[in-house]
Give the backbone structure.
Amino acid sequence: MRTDGTPGDGAHDLRHHGDAEVRDDGSALTDLAVNVRAGTPPAWLRAVIAESLAGLAAYPDGRAARAAVAARHGLPAERVLLTAGAAEAFVLLARALKVRRPVVVHPQFTEPEAALRDAGHTVGRVLLRPSDGFRLDPALVPEDADLVVIGNPTNPTSVLHPAAAIASLARPGRTLVVDEAFMDAVPREREALAGRTDVPGLVVLRSLTKTWGLAGLRVGYVLASPETIAELERAQPLWPVSTPALVAARACVSPRALAEAAHAAHQVAADRAHLVAGLRELGPDGVFVVEPAEGPFVLLWLPRAAAVRRRLRSLGFAVRRGDTFPGLDEEWLRLAVRDRATVDRFLQTLDRAMT
């Protein structure tokens, strides 16, 4: 495991994401590349969003949605900022905060590093290794890092780091950014830091895209100290979140929605266990799965993975390549968790593609 202070070696396309795997002919493919829960948004949420269209003549007013998100996490509204997806939050952090040595813990979602680099920062990397199960050792983060970014559970490794280990990264003068975009897919949201106010410099990002299937609507939020929220808000354009997205945010933190998300998290866990068990049956020499997986996706290593991915595509399945994530190479693939029938079809197809 190593750290480096380079802005990137050019070996990884930080702007490649799962949607690129299905962008052109996705209708002909079964999608295991994008980490949005299948079958979403649910009908009741679509109806709520559709009803909001009657109010499009007015400028967006985010106060009710902000208060609802704050209440969901037991926080005052001044600790919440609504954003056009978590991706906007990374850009705001990169542009608004005055930092000297930002560090990103990889492998993880690449937009934080891309946003920091675009804002002119030199970005240090902490690369976690498969031999360690891609688990965090806080001692690897440089003491002089004044911005640290980590995902939990981490995309693409599906590792859920202990909240205590992440919180131990907090230091005076350091901003600790935890991307919890997939935390609501973890039963009981174990190891969540959202809602904590006792960790200095803590910034938590949440997305409503994944569990609720709202990638096209762009809605997420930031939880942080009032001072940090004010800095980020000053960097936002006016009315950054649309009225339909604000209505969706409010709906997705309602008691009904939280109960549905909790049920979905348990279903994802069961479907993921079925997927992992099937991958193990392909043989110990054929596939290595990063375990225990805790997100709505799994990361696996297999020989000739790039060729297997192309073969899978020709057989009707899209999966996410791993070589665009720092710390991984073309022998890695990420698979979104799907229902058992889809998983069974995929496993049969993967067996064919590997031969």
